[in-house]
Write a structure and sequence with these properties.
The structure is a homodimer of 243-residue chains. Chain A has 243 residues and is α+β, with helices and mostly antiparallel strands. The first copy, chain A, is 35% helix and 26% strand. Chain A is built from seven helices and nine strands, in the order H-E-E-E-E-H-E-E-H-E-H-H-H-E-E-H. In chain A, the strands form two sheets. In chain A, strands 1, 2, 3, 4, 5, 6 and 7 form a seven-stranded mixed sheet that branches. Chain A starts with a helix and ends in a 7-residue tail after the last helix. The model of chain A has no long low-confidence stretch (mean pLDDT 90). The interface between A and B is large, with 44 and 44 residues. The first copy, chain A, binds a DNA duplex (27 and 27 nucleotides) through helix 6.
DNA sequence: CCAAAAGTGTTATATTTACACCCATGC
DNA sequence: GCATGGGTGTAAATATAACACTTTTGG
């Protein structure tokens, strides 16, 4: 059992160490994925910090004293995209000592999934520094953001197979082939149409709507929506997407 | 395209924000799992910081200016356990604003898997503040460490089913029933002996040794070891433990 | 000879895969 | 009427799950 003075000594050591570490800043960076034109895209911003003026960077910011990491990530997302209905998931911290040119900045990466729609695109028009770039087209980003993007992409791909998060990239109402195409694009391999449909329908987490596609120049597809309530019920019994 | 002065302005804003955020410290906390006496245990330390003097805490420390998070976690682990051969995996950051009584401390949690052996236990004797406690027996820890432990436990359980990490908790040489028992204890449900053996052997990641158990009062079991090289080869072709 | 764990195969069931044609709509 | 994607079923192969007895060793 430590005596009182040992305790006081330990606390002093801690206070000293915490003060010493006050030269480390903490930030969040968001890898914001969207799906548009059968392509997986990332929202990036022109970088205004040397030596990366010619590069794009992820959207991020320093974490404020009065907010958690989740709150900071959501703040960045809302500020830049105007969205509040986003799927946001912490991935991991990046801490290479010289990853930031202005000093020690440890960053915590998140990935976000958002539905790209016309309202959103209109909102973006007002910020000419922001751009949706196809994931496949990216080969470098400012700082260590390319590595961060890549790791978040892998995590997202993995989780896509295990949890029903893909719906966050699609409109509320979608056809089964839209969904299949999304999986094919994100996972990077083709899926059998009949097997895919059977599997998804039998999972029981899709709600079949009394609605069909309109203004398509072929037989219109049935529309579905994700049944969150049904998923929550099934999740408890151990559940796997398994594609 | 931002002009030079806009860039300078932006950089100044960043520098200011980084300085403002210098009131946040970053720490690592390690959830160190060991397997002993058919029980999953966590290594904890008597807490010397009010108001948690009656509690145990995880092993952690402030991250130094010249080390990454991984390095800090490894440093903590080596300092406390004397081990260098450890499996260490980042889990996630915890950032509740008042999680630490001495100020804002954002912590990054790791879990570690180590082989508890006699040399290790002897090393521990010298630090009477350290203890191996059965995971099942824990109901509270200092700070938010119980929540951290719980989340790390869930992540470890999950990864145990997908990657061959369980071997890090066993001696180099083990019998199939030792391995099965480990899985049963960690996952929390019984496994069929014959199916388990068939599955593991057919995975092709175990090396059968020319050695058997000694000094057991029953028929001695064949010993195996984990074949890291074989695993690395198979992993590429997409691999799943699948228990 | 007894206790204790080692070791071993088969069958039924469920899951996964592969595969091809007719249907409804807009132009 | 034609181009386009919508929608449907079956059979073979594979994986999983359930289950009981004989063997070997130490004491």
């Amino acid at each position: 059992m430590p005596t009182g003075s040992v305790i006081a000594q330990n606390i002093n050591r801690w206070i000293t160490e915490i003060h010493n570490s006050y030269k480390t800043a903490v930030s969040v960076d968001c890898v914001i994925f969207g799906y548009d034109e059968d392509t997986l895209k990332v929202l990036v911003s022109k970088c205004d910090m040397p030596p990366f003026e010619r590069e794009y960077s992820l959207l991020g910011d320093i974490v404020h004293a009065d907010e958690t990491l989740d709150e900071a990530a959501l703040r960045v997302l809302v500020a830049k995209t105007g969205f509040t209905d986003v799927f946001l998931e912490q991935v991991q911290a990046f801490s290479a000592i010289n990853r930031h040119p202005l000093g020690r900045v440890i960053t915590v990466a998140y990935y976000a999934l958002i539905k790209i729609d016309d309202a959103h695109l209109a909102h973006l028009e007002q910020d000419s520094d922001l751009q949706w770039l196809p994931v496949e087209a990216l080969s470098s980003l400012a700082f260590d953001h390319f590595e961060i993007m890549h790791i978040c992409l892998e995590k997202m791909r993995f989780e896509m197979r295990v949890r029903p998060i893909g719906f966050n990239l699609l409109p509320q109402k979608f056809s089964l082939l839209q969904l299949q195409k999304l999986y094919e694009v994100v996972l990077g391999f083709p899926l059998d149409k009949r097997n895919f449909r059977r599997k998804l329908v039998r999972l029981g987490i899709l709600e079949q709507l009394d609605e069909i596609e309109s203004s398509v120049s072929h037989r219109p597809a049935r529309l579905y929506s994700f049944d969150e309530a049904a998923y929550q019920q099934k999740k408890i019994a151990g559940f796997n997407f398994d594609l």
